[in-house]
Structure formats: C-alpha cells, structure tokens
Amino acid sequence: MIRLESLRECTLPLVVLVTGMPGSGKSVVSEAAKRVGYSVVRMGDVVREIAAELGRQATDESLGDVALCIRAEHGMDVVARLTLHKACMDYRNTPIVVEGVRNLEELEFFKNHALKCYLVAVHASPQTRFSRLSTRGRSDDPRSWEDFVRRDLRELKMGLGSVIALADVVLINEGKTLEQFVEEAAKVLSEILRRHNHAQA
To answer: Which UniProt keywords apply (predicted)?
Structure first.
C-alpha cells in the first residue's frame, strides 16, 4: 500500500516545521502561515489518508494505531517521506510550513531536504489543551480527560517531547485571544521569511 520506492524527493528552499502537543494550536500557526505567504502541508492529513485507504475510522485510537503501525513497518520517518513527496509535487518552489512533526527522525529528514529549516513549537497547558480539544468537534478528539492523557502519553512515547525541546522558537498559546495568537505567529513566520529572502538576495 505504501510504495516508498515511488516517492519523490527534492530539496525545498525553506521549511518551517510546526510541532506541539495535541490542542496546543499548531493549526492556528498554519493558518497564520497562509496569511503571510507560506504553503501548508499537514502530516496528520497523510495519516488520515492512509487510514481511509485501510478502511479505518478517523477516531483518535484508530489514527494512533495506524501512525504507530506504519512507522513500525516502514521506519520512524515514513510520514515525513510521504509528506515531502506531496510538498515536492505541489509546492516545490515556495516556502512551506509542515504541521505535526512528532519525532527526531522526522526532524532530521526534513533538515536533510531543505536549504533552510526552522522548528517552531507551540505550547499550552494541559488544561487549556483539553478544553480546546473537547470543543473542537473533530472525530479524533478525546471524549474524556482519561482519553486526553492517553493521547498525550502516546505522543510523548513517539518522541514528541524531544522534538519540542529542540525548537528554534517557542510560541506560548495561553491567555490570548485567537486573533492575538494568530498575529504573534504571523509576525514570527514573516520574520523567518524575511530573513530567508534577504539571504537569497
């Protein structure tokens, strides 16, 4: 089902990787990125597409199982490789935000396939994240605090904490309105893009 030999690879000019625990606000950073000129690729969408091909429901438990199984079978960087294939096909010459890096192997893979790579982590407290996820309405969102904790532990076991620890920039998404956080994220992403364009001039 996953044909790694057919995947396209390229070197992207600028990649900003966005990481963070579930509900921290990664998707908000992605929306801010679109406002300032980035294309966005979501690693979670790649997992959802694979789950759909396998006939699996888009629940948290099911998507988590799929993510773990494909990494066990094809390597910890397999979702990054599939994501890069999509980026090379659709956005090869544009600055890209990749949302949802979860382990060090994925981080290293993208660093090896970008002329310039930045890592941005988004942080919010567990209570804030649970509140957001409880009202988001997505099929894979936790229905209880126990589900939420279980999901956090699965993400940390996958290596997410190590990735967050290596961030070039940390955005705190706590005690702010949505628009305030969007503006803060857009400012950071604009500055990264400005520096990149200046270096290329």
So the answer is: Cell projection, Cilium, Flagellum
Cβ count within 10 A of residue 56: 15
Please tell me the total count of domains within the chain. 1
How far apart are the C-alpha atoms of 127 and 34, rounded to whole Å?
28
Is the CA virtual torsion 59, 2, 40, 188 positive or negative?
positive
At 122, phi and psi to the nearest 5?
A: -110, 130
CATH number (domain holding residue 141):
3.40.50.300
pLDDT of residue 201: 66
Residues in the chain: 201
Q: Residue 122 is encoded by which pair of tokens? A: 């988004």
The structure tokens listed for 178 are 């949505």
pLDDT band of residue 137 (cuts 50, 70, 90) is confident
The residue segments making up the domain with residue 98 are 4-200
Spacing of C-alpha 69 from chain mean position: 19
